């Protein structure tokens, strides 16, 4: 698969789904196999961008450093237990690696590091870590509680007087396999390790279990995997698995914890993009009320995809 990271659905998955699209006619019937594959890759990438745009956030796991100002903003609030609640932009928050605080009107900024672990994620995601099955629905929150003593609450004139930097991972781990893997291997080389390792490195029990996902191999070799460790926090690297692989897997296959709704929505976006190339280039089963392979058919597919993505959208 080309590009720095794999799209949410790749050509091998897309062309095997019952979408009714004649993928061999894109870009043209006379195009080479390489040209047809390249066109499919482009459609997959565009469909992934459409899914992210509809969700108003990047759905795959990403590592972010977000800056908030407080006290007094709706994103920085004092709680009765003495903690400060930080409402971040991306969800679901999988883990927090660092928080630092500085006075916003003292330059250069003099950062105070929040003690490691002096925070907690509100509503941690279910079925991502410590589960034997990949997530099939969206769970989790987008807020973090920071321990007391780092922001002065009370008194006047403090609105927005402090800046808080939070480094965290949010989204659902998703990657493409970049090196062939064989049955019996206990590692996978992938294009993105973000979010796969345990949320609490070095922990034991459930807290020390990494992300569960599925290898979507179209050769009939689909299998679930659980990650125990990753060679890097984010970007290309190697995942260490909890058990040996049952099957061989080739580069370009995805391993993903994305909920199935997101992947199916991405496929529908891809089908709608194929239809916009014109009915003469595609064949699709008639969609009730749309007249088949027409612009209205593409719009109907996009609406279905929008409805599937809506539960995963960022609203604040």
Describe the structure.
The structure is a single chain. The protein is α+β, with helices and mostly antiparallel strands and 316 residues long. It folds into 2 domains: 11-58 and 173-312, no CATH class; 62-170, no CATH class. Helices cover 18% and strands 23% of the residues. It has helices at 11-14, 33-55, 260-275, 295-309; strands spanning 62-70, 76-78, 84-87, 93-103, 112-113, 119-121, 143-146, 162-170, 174-176, 187-190, 212-216, 223-230, 237-241, 254-256. Strands 9-14-11-12-13-10 form a 6-stranded antiparallel β-sheet, with no helix packed on it. The protein has a 4-stranded antiparallel β-sheet with strand order 1-8-4-5, with no helix packed on it. Strands 2-3-7-6 form a 4-stranded antiparallel β-sheet, with no helix packed on it. Helix 2 packs across helix 3 and helix 3 runs antiparallel to helix 4.
Oligomer: single chain
In whole angstroms, the N-to-C terminal distance is: 33 Å
Q: What is the element string, with H for helices and E for strands?
A: HHEEEEEEEEEEEEEEHH
The amount of helix comes to 10-25%
Average pLDDT over all residues: 88
Which consecutive residue ranges, at least 5 long each, have pLDDT under 50?
A: 279-283, 285-294
What characteristic shape results from the CA principal axes? Answer: globular
Q: Write down the domain tally.
A: 2
The strand line-up of the biggest sheet is 9-14-11-12-13-10
Beta-sheet strand percentage?
15-25%
The number of strands is 14
Output the number of helix runs.
4
Largest sheet: 6 strands, antiparallel
Q: What is the C-alpha radius of gyration, as a whole number of Å? A: 22 Å
Report the structural category: alpha+beta
């Amino acid at each position: 698969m080309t590009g720095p990271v794999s799209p949410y659905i790749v050509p091998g998955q897309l062309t095997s789904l019952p979408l009714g699209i004649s993928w061999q006619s894109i870009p043209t019937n006379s195009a080479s196999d390489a040209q047809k594959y390249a066109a499919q890759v482009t459609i997959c990438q565009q469909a992934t961008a459409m899914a992210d745009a509809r969700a108003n956030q990047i759905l795959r796991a990403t590592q972010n450093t977000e800056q908030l100002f407080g006290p007094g903003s709706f994103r920085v609030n004092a709680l009765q237990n003495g903690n400060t609640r930080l409402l971040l932009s991306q969800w679901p928050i999988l883990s927090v690696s660092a928080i630092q605080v500085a006075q916003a009107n003292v330059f250069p900024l003099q950062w105070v590091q929040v003690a490691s672990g002096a925070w907690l994620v509100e509503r941690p995601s279910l079925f991502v870590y410590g589960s034997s099955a990949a997530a099939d629905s969206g769970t989790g929150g987008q807020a973090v509680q920071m321990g007391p003593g780092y922001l002065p609450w009370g008194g006047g004139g403090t609105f927005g007087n402090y800046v808080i930097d939070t480094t965290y991972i949010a989204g659902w781990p998703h990657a493409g396999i970049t090196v062939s893997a064989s049955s019996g291997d206990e590692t996978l080389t992938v294009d993105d390790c973000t979010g796969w390792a345990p949320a609490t490195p070095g922990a034991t029990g459930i807290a020390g279990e990494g992300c569960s996902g599925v290898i979507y191999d179209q050769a009939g070799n689909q299998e679930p995997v659980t990650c125990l460790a990753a060679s890097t926090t984010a970007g290309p690297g190697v995942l260490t698995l909890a058990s040996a692989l049952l099957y061989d897997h080739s580069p370009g296959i995805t391993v993903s914890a994305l909920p199935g709704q997101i992947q199916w929505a991405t496929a529908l976006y891809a089908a709608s993009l194929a239809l916009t190339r014109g009915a003469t280039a595609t064949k699709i089963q008639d969609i009730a009320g749309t007249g088949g392979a027409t612009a209205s058919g593409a719009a109907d597919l996009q609406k279905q995809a929008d409805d599937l993505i809506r539960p995963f959208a960022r609203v604040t």
